[in-house]
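[job 4417] fold queue: 2 targets
>>> target A
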Amino acid sequence: MSIWKSLFGSDDLEEYENEQEAVDIQNENSGITLFKKENKKVKKEETNMKFIAVKPRNMNEASKFVNIVRNKFIVTFNIEALNREEGQRMLDILSGATHAMSGKTVFVSEKVFISVPEGVEVDNLIENGEEIE
């Protein structure tokens, strides 16, 4: 009897087993059985995450969009309706708000970008030149 069982009793200890699944590999020369850890299941979790697409018409709407970014929504901004100077200012303001929330700004095109909150992964297939199958 081990020292732990004598001190605490056998019922008080939980036995931990390394859950491994035996994998037989047909190798004529070796006869080795390999072990691999059992795949952990990914639990699907529902979130209150929202995706919002907006097209700002003027700089007066910037504060409204900053509040949307602060609420940690995924927001796509299409700044085609703004002139070059206003578009740059809007981009600077919204990128700053996104960065302040530990998020990131992902560019889809020259005048379309996405504000992505912390913890959300984005694969930009357009930028990477990949095709969706």
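>>> target B
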Amino acid sequence: MLLFMATMVFLWMGAGAMVYSAPCEPVNIPMCNSMPWNITRMPNHLHHSTQENAILAIGQYEELVDINCSPVLRFFLCAMYAPFCTLEFLHDPIKPCKSVCQRARDGCEPVLQRYNHSWPHSLACDDLPVYDRGVCISPEAIVTDLPEVIHAKVKSVSRTGCHEITTVVEVKEVFKSSISIGQGQVPLITNSSCSCPQMVPGQEVIIMCYEWRS
């Protein structure tokens, strides 16, 4: 049976107005220019109201980033100082996952301790979300390319397993596909515990997904 695994709702079409805590803005922090996102929202998770303030604060970690004490340190710092902003998903910017913080801390705290410093309290890992229990961002969770992109109208949504949701959509237009996707109704399977934007019948969405055969 041919199904499609839906991994991300990329854009809502015809949706009502959303209330934002602040608009998304381009990332202007030099340390974070290489991140896989280019929009952020202030204030950040360290309560900096502007990116100018965030640039001054994140600069204290440049030497740690340069010595590469942890391969995820730059990602973690940018997720805190220039957090990923979603246009129509959350009112607040997305936090890094607890595991990302722990990996950065485990790699870099020994370096700090050589100079009689400890891991900063402002970057504590304890209150950050766990990947399978909430919304958070990690390097492994970012997919840079998906072969199927469709414009579709939601027909029905049903839970078919503990972490599995089946969404039947009517394909309106195929923007990108490595296989033939006909017009008409197609089942989409979301096999994840992440808190994704809720879809309801009648909404039109753009969905990125990939083929799954069983």
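[job 4417] complete. Note on B: The two ends are 6 Å apart (CA to CA).
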